[in-house]
């Protein structure tokens, strides 16, 4: 894998839509993919590989591919999933398990190059509306070319939403009293300024999740001091940024494809065991996680106060700290952790609930995302607006009342890409089924016995409850109490269920 593909990443002037593709008289596409991040690139690769001859395009509002890995530019940005499972199953990962944003972008660039996908991707193409016509059996999207200002429409028989789950344009920042009084600078990691110089500065990072755990060790030693200020702790797990099994298999000179698959299966097995323990033995798992933190943080850190969450392991994502770098910074004294509430911002920093004032020159609000449902794009079916919160999800990827559309929503406790590959297999199978049967329309429909079944939130908050989901749950689709209306968030179940799903059991209506 190349070490730096940044200079080669296409920008807005690469692959402009031709008149034949963008004009009102253009022939409809077979598939329109929305988004050129990890999901959209995976969808494009599978369409190209599994359904040669399919006419499809990928529309991306940014000026290059990569999604999350382009939006986030804060120091130390890296994956919080191992790349053996975050990488696609069809392209072996050859680097360290936890990768930098540049390494991930290089990997994605290779997928695009090796798959010949560049001509299929249109950058700086924002979708302003998506409309389904029953008479034409087509989706028509209103497109705004951000580089030229041109507006036009594209039509497609199938719409594949791969745009992610959060707003790239606006992050979540709570409104604290006194923010206008602070004399320093307030930044969010999602919008990291290029001109921010931290040398000699006292930095407070508000937050305790994976972003804070990545940012704090990255700037520790580069600023006067950095403090991670958290309202409540997060579960952490540490380990070397290496995979001993992969290293051993490479010494045996096995083919990269074998190594990738073997290591991938071992990691997935270990993750399944960890998830099982989180349900069957949460207290025992908690003790092990805390013992690991104590060993890493050293005797001077109050682990009970600063690293013991109020919720059980895996009720929110467990943040991986490669090589224990966060705890190494705390031990070295270049970083510290404060667990307290925020009373207000003051001129020189933050007044805490305890009355202490935490002095700061720069405050970083690592406070999370704003949920985006279908990219916040207005949808309508024959002119009737679609309210996704009133739909029921079919296996979490298609929705009642919405024809010829699939959504990739990845896993919380495993790599997002695992579901990308599974959903791509299913969509390609669904398209082949429609082609073979002569169907031009497919829509999930509740069968008679299911119309009165209890409906539940998209995600059970007792099972997983990060802030961005709790803030936006009322905008997400619903799920039922039985298959195929469950959104399981379980890779091990999905990989058996989706390939075997009966397309003719009546839960999908074809015509």
Shape: globular
Which structural category do the helix and sheet elements fall into?
alpha/beta
Give the % helix. Answer: 25-40%
Number of helices, where a helix is a run of at least 4 consecutive DSSP H or I residues: 14
Unreliable residue runs: 1-8, 11-25
Largest sheet: 9 strands, mixed
**End-to-end distance, in Å?**
45 Å
Q: How much strand?
A: 15-25%
Q: Please tell me how large the radius of gyration is.
A: 24 Å
Q: Count every beta strand, where a strand is a DSSP E run of 2 or more residues.
A: 23
Mean of residue pLDDT values = 91
Which key features would you list for this structure?
alpha/beta; disordered N terminus; 511 residues; 23 strands; 5-stranded parallel β-sheet; 9-stranded mixed β-sheet
Outline the structure in words.
With 511 residues, the chain is α/β, with parallel strands linked by helices. The protein has 14 helices and 23 strands. Strands 1, 2, 3, 4, 5, 6, 17, 18 and 21 form a nine-stranded mixed sheet that branches. Strands 7-16-8-9-12 form a five-stranded parallel sheet. Strand 19 and strand 20 form a beta hairpin. Helix 2 packs parallel to helix 12. The longest helix is centred in the middle third of the chain and has 25 residues, at 256-280. The chain is globular and about 70 Å long. The model is unreliable at 1-8 and 11-25 (pLDDT under 50).
């Amino acid at each position: 894998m190349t070490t730096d593909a940044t200079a080669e990443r296409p920008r807005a002037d690469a692959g402009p839509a031709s008149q034949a593709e963008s004009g009102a008289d253009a022939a409809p596409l077979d598939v329109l993919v929305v988004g050129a991040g990890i999901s959209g690139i995976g969808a494009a690769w599978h369409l190209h590989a599994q359904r040669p001859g399919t006419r499809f395009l990928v529309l991306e509002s940014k000026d290059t591919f990569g999604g999350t890995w382009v939006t986030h530019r804060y120091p130390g940005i890296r994956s919080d999933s191992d790349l053996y499972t975050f990488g696609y199953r069809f392209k072996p990962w050859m680097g360290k398990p936890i990768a930098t944003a540049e390494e991930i972008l290089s990997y994605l660039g290779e997928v695009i190059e090796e798959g010949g996908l560049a001509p299929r991707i249109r950058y700086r193409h924002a979708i302003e509306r998506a409309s389904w016509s029953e008479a034409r059996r087509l989706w028509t999207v209103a497109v705004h070319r951000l580089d030229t200002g041109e507006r036009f429409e594209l039509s497609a028989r199938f719409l594949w939403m791969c745009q992610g789950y959060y707003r790239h344009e606006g992050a979540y920042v709570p409104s604290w009293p006194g923010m206008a009084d602070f004399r320093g600078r307030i930044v969010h990691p999602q919008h990291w300024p290029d001109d921010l110089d931290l040398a000699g500065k006292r930095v407070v990072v508000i937050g305790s999740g994976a972003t804070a755990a990545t940012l704090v060790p990255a700037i520790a030693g580069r600023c006067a001091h950095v403090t991670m200020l958290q309202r409540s702790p997060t579960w952490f797990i540490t380990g070397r940024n290496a995979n001993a099994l992969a290293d051993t298999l490479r010494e045996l000179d096995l083919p990269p494809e074998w190594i990738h698959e073997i290591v991938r299966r071992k990691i997935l097995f270990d993750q399944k065991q960890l998830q099982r323990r989180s349900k069957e033995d949460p207290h025992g798992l908690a003790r092990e996680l805390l013992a690991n933190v104590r060993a890493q943080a050293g005797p001077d850190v109050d682990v009970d106060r600063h690293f013991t969450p109020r919720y059980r392991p895996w009720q929110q994502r467990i943040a991986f700290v490669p090589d224990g770098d966060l705890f190494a910074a705390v031990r070295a004294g270049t970083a510290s952790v404060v667990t307290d509430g925020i009373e207000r911002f003051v001129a020189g920093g933050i007044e805490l609930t305890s009355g202490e004032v935490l002095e700061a020159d720069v405050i970083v609000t690592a406070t999370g995302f704003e949920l985006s449902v279908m990219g916040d794009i207005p949808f309508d079916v024959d002119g009737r607006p679609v309210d996704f919160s009133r739909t029921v999800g079919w296996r979490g990827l298609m929705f009642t009342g919405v024809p010829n559309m699939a959504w990739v929503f990845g896993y919380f406790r495993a790599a997002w890409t695992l579901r990308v590959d599974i959903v791509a297999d299913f969509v390609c199978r669904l398209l082949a089924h429609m082609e073979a049967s002569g169907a031009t329309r497919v829509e999930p429909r509740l069968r008679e016995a299911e119309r009165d079944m209890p409906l539940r939130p998209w995600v059970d908050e007792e099972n997983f409850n990060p802030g961005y989901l709790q803030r936006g749950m009322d905008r997400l689709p619903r799920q039922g109490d039985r298959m195929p209306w469950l959104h399981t968030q379980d890779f091990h179940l999905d990989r058996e269920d989706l390939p075997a799903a009966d397309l003719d059991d009546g839960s999908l209506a074809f015509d």
